[in-house]
């Protein structure tokens, strides 16, 4: 991965934000001194009917959220935010412009994916798969409720989270069976 974009990619996978949300973040949207540090997601890049880009609302009302940032990510963000104005974009191209999806995908995503495939990667991951990876980590860790994961991802409903990631919760099947077994002990005695 191009060195300039590594922190951006790590931000996507460590926060589960959508590409258009992450690229719309401004320095003022992150608070690296808070405990925990946070990113306030309240906008995203959109296209109007003439295919011109503008900053608008998140995909859903639930997409407007504050995300806690892990310490390793904070360490990566400190040098980026240190000497920049609050109105500056957090992540930019090498010339300071907005990161556009298609050019980023063509020039900075596909080449490292092809390199990884030459070294044995059998899949062809999309940028959006970083969001799925993040959600999968949260589900499989078991430390967060599905409701909390849903809110972190900005899903309009917990049902969306459950439908997309529920298959990653095999322990939930066992937990349900165990709870039922405990509940019927009084009946069987």
UniProtKB/TrEMBL annotation:
Residues 1-178 form the Tyr recombinase domain. CDD domains: INT_ICEBs1_C_like (cd01189). It comes from the Bacteria. Keywords: DNA recombination. The keyword Transferase does not apply. It holds the Pfam family Phage_integrase. InterPro entries: DNA_brk_join_enz (IPR011010), Integrase-like_cat_sf (IPR013762), Integrase_catalytic (IPR002104), Tyrosine_recombinase_XerCD (IPR050090). Transmembrane segments: none annotated. This is Integrase.
């Amino acid at each position: 991965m191009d060195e300039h974009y590594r922190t951006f990619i790590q931000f996507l996978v460590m926060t589960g934000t959508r590409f258009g949300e992450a690229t719309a973040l401004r320095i003022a949207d992150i608070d690296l001194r808070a405990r925990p540090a946070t990113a306030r997601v309240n906008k995203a890049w959109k296209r109007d009917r003439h295919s011109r880009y503008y900053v608008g609302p998140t995909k859903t009302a639930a997409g407007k959220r504050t995300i806690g940032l892990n310490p390793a990510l904070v360490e990566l963000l400190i040098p980026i935010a240190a000497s920049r104005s609050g109105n500056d974009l957090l992540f930019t191209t090498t010339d300071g412009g907005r990161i556009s999806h298609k050019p980023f995908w063509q020039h900075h995503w596909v080449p490292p994916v092809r390199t990884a495939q030459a070294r044995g990667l059998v899949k062809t991951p999309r940028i959006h798969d970083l969001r799925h990876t993040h959600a999968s980590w949260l589900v499989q860790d078991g430390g967060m409720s599905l409701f909390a994961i849903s809110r972190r991802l900005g899903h309009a409903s917990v049902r969306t989270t459950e439908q997309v990631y529920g298959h990653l919760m095999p322990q939930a099947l066992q937990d349900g069976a165990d709870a039922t077994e405990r509940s019927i002990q009084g009946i069987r005695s």
